[in-house]
Amino acid sequence: MPAARKLLACLNWTKHIKPQVDLVSVPAWSIVLVRLAVGRIFATQGFLKYADPNMGVNRFVRIGFPAPLFTAHFVGAFEMVCEFLVLLGMWTRISAIPLLIVISMAIATTKLPELYRPNQGFWYMVSEARTDFSMLCCLLFLIISGPGVWSVDNFWSRRNVDQ
Predict the structure, then answer these.
(1) By the 8 A CB rule, do 42 and 100 touch?
(2) Which one, 88, 89, 109, 162, has the greatest CB density within 10 A?
(3) What whole-number distance in Å separates Cα of residue 66 and Cα of residue 130?
């Protein structure tokens, strides 16, 4: 049991990061809504990378990723595991980092090239990327603020203080 406690302490390194958001003035349910939005988007996108070849393998072939089958399934698995952790509020800051990398790569590989396509340009790209930019902002918010009061992280931290 002591080894498990040490592991949890190592994984909870982000508790030392002071949030820039005044969490006293942010209602607990509002952070849960952000976690739900992130979880819903990444759950569906992760699932679609397995279920729909056009959203998974074929898309990764079109973009030019090496080993598109492996890459699509690897990214889809990461999205589903990390979104589940974010939904629970478990290791939220740590699990938001891979999702931030995924969404940044999605913007860089699928949205920014639209700037240079004929008859598209900036406004087309902004319109197409609205969900991606929203997820980017939500993930940055969760990394800065943490999971909020209604989370597994908060439950664990209160439990450790009590012991």
Answers:
(1) no
(2) 89
(3) 27
